[in-house]
Specification:
The complex is a heterodimer of chains A (about 250) and B (about 250).
Chain A (H helix, E strand, L loop, with lengths): L2 E6 L7 H14 L3 E6 L7 H4 L11 H5 L10 E2 L11 E5 L5 H10 L3 H14 L4 E5 L6 H9 L2 E6 L6 H13 L4 E9 L5 H12 L3 E6 L2 H6 L5 H4 L4 H13 L3
Parallel strand pairs in A: 1-5, 1-6, 2-4, 2-5, 6-7, 7-8
Antiparallel strand pairs in A: 3-4
Helix pairs in contact in A: 1-11, 5-6
Chain B lengths: L2 H10 L8 H8 L3 E5 L4 E3 L4 E2 L1 E7 L2 E5 L2 E6 L4 E2 L1 H5 L2 E2 L3 E4 L3 E7 H10 L1 H44 L8 H4 L4 H28 L7 H12 L2 H16 L11
The chains are: A alpha/beta (about 250), B alpha+beta (about 250).
């Protein structure tokens, strides 16, 4: 049974795309077939982490939504670039990075219903075990749809970002959509915070389990968009924590 | 200056105070009066020399390059070590104002000591006293250095988080500048520690403030839309439908 996991943050800059990329690599390393969809169409970014060759990228999610291609044609097999040999695969469905197409999304929007069809098509066509959705920050229609169809929702927040109200709204809305599993990751936690205390407070405020309180990491900052953290630093405490998160997300 | 004046002067110089007038009369004939202008150097460190000087009037500076070690005044003696034991001058002497000196060469001084044992003993006595005072100074210097090292050790301990304020109590009890340094250090470390504790308390109390009334309104703004209602009605079916890839063969 395929599982859809949405990764969301109320605001940008929380490390959402980075988390999606790392979780996909961890899950693929366990032999699973993973699809990663970048629905953050207004500010796409995850393709950079995977070093997707833009010149070789003929179709994107945008083309599918505008009826120019099948969703499978916008899926790129990244497995050769990453670890191999265990049967795991990663397919990325990027958003267009062309300014004109980003502007068109903002101007015209698209049929959100198509997104749902596309997700299910992908799962079927690529025999996916897990579909990871990198959502757009905020709560627009495609994000609501992603949440509605997800088996699990991961909400990422930063303790130094004062967007607690917006996160509260997100959690409440997700509850009303009956998401079976909802967890939180506190990311980029400054050293002055006590992680246990942060976990306790966040859980208390939102009534939602916090599966990781990840510290701000200089290594991750240095790597920035230059690669996948868990591949570069497999034994780093952050990588270990993300592996634990991944194990808890996927019911095998 | 008359012979009797010279004898009176010699008796006022502590090296010769207890030497009988008779012998001083012999010496007084061998004194040569020297006048130096303000700023003029009497001798420089490294010069060879075998005479000593006594200040009749004026003031000289004992120095090593730019660094002043001492000021000498009327009736003070300098250069006596070279007179007794010819070696290169260990420090420089420069007049700070117009100064008159008596110069006494090695030969008459040593001659007097050879002829009269009591003179030799008296001079040895004076030199021994000076040496003893120097030993006391050195012990004091050593203690100073040891206590100074305590302050630097305390700085290292602060950095390592193992500083104990009592470790500086002894140094802080000094009345000199080192004591003041230790007291300021103790106080500042205390202040920094308190500030850090306050900060820790503040940050560990990660305040998550959510305006529940506002949240309810914000949630309603989303959940009361037709789109959301449709989505909620479909959510269960949507989730159920993507779990069927095992049943339907891939058609891609």
């Amino acid at each position: 049974m395929a599982e859809i996991i949405s990764v969301h943050s109320f605001r940008g800059g929380t490390g959402k795309s980075n988390t999606v990329a790392n979780l996909s690599v961890i899950l693929a390393a366990r032999g699973l077939r993973i699809g990663v969809v970048d629905t953050d169409m207004q500010s796409p970014g995850i393709h950079v982490l995977f070093a997707l060759d833009e010149a070789a990228t003929k179709y994107s999610l945008n083309d599918y939504l505008w009826g120019k291609c099948e969703i499978r044609q916008a899926a790129y097999d990244l497995t050769p670039k990453l670890e191999k040999g265990n049967g795991g695969r990663i397919f990325l469905i990027p958003s267009s990075i062309k300014m004109g197409e980003i502007a068109r999304v903002l101007r015209e929007g698209y049929d959100v219903g198509l997104l749902n069809d596309g997700f299910h098509r992908l799962i079927k066509d690529l025999s996916l075990d897990v579909l990871l959705i990198d959502t757009h920050p905020g709560l627009n229609e495609e994000t609501l749809l992603s949440i509605a169809i997800s088996d699990a929702l991961v909400i990422i927040l930063r303790p130094d970002h004062q967007d607690y109200q917006g996160i509260g709204v997100t959690v409440e809305v997700a509850r009303k959509l009956d998401v079976p599993r909802m967890v939180m990751i506190v990311n980029k936690t400054p050293q002055v915070f006590d992680p246990d205390e942060v976990k306790r407070r966040v859980e208390q405020a939102y009534g939602c389990p916090v599966v990781a309180v990840l510290p701000h990491s200089d290594e991750m900052m240095a790597l920035a968009s230059g690669g996948i953290f868990v591949l570069r630093y497999p034994d780093h405490p952050i990588a270990v924590a993300l592996k634990r998160v991944a194990a808890g997300l996927v019911v095998e | 200056m008359s012979t009797s004046d010279r004898i009176i002067f010699l008796k006022s110089v502590n090296l010769f105070t207890d030497i009988p007038d008779l012998y001083l009369a012999e010496l007084s004939d061998r004194l040569e009066e020297v006048e130096v202008r303000a700023g003029e150097t009497v001798f420089e460190k490294g010069d060879s020399g075998s005479c000593m000087y006594m200040i009749i009037e004026g003031r000289v500076r004992v120095h090593d390059g730019e660094r002043t070690l001492n000021d000498l005044l009327k009736r003070d003696v300098f250069g006596e070590m070279a007179a007794l034991d010819p070696e290169l001058r260990s420090l420089s002497i420069t007049a700070m104002e117009p100064t008159r000196l008596f110069r006494l060469d090695r030969e008459p001084l040593v001659g007097l000591m050879a002829d009269h044992t009591e003179v030799a003993l008296q001079i040895i006595h004076i030199l021994s006293q000076r040496l003893r005072a120097r030993v006391v100074d050195m012990a004091e210097d050593y203690k100073y250095m040891r206590q100074f090292a305590r302050v630097t050790a305390a700085a290292v301990a602060v950095e390592a988080g193992i500083y104990e304020p009592e470790s500086l109590d002894e140094v802080a009890a000094r009345t000199d500048e080192l004591g003041q340094l230790a007291r300021v250090f103790q106080r500042m470390v205390g202040e920094v520690y308190n500030r850090e504790q306050r900060l820790k308390q503040e940050v560990s109390e990660l305040r998550i403030e959510i305006d529940e009334v506002k949240k309810a309104r914000q949630v309603a703004e989303i959940t009361e839309t037709q789109y959301f209602q449709d989505l909620k009605n479909k959510a269960f079916r949507l989730r159920a439908s993507h779990g069927d890839r095992d049943q339907e063969p891939s058609d891609g």
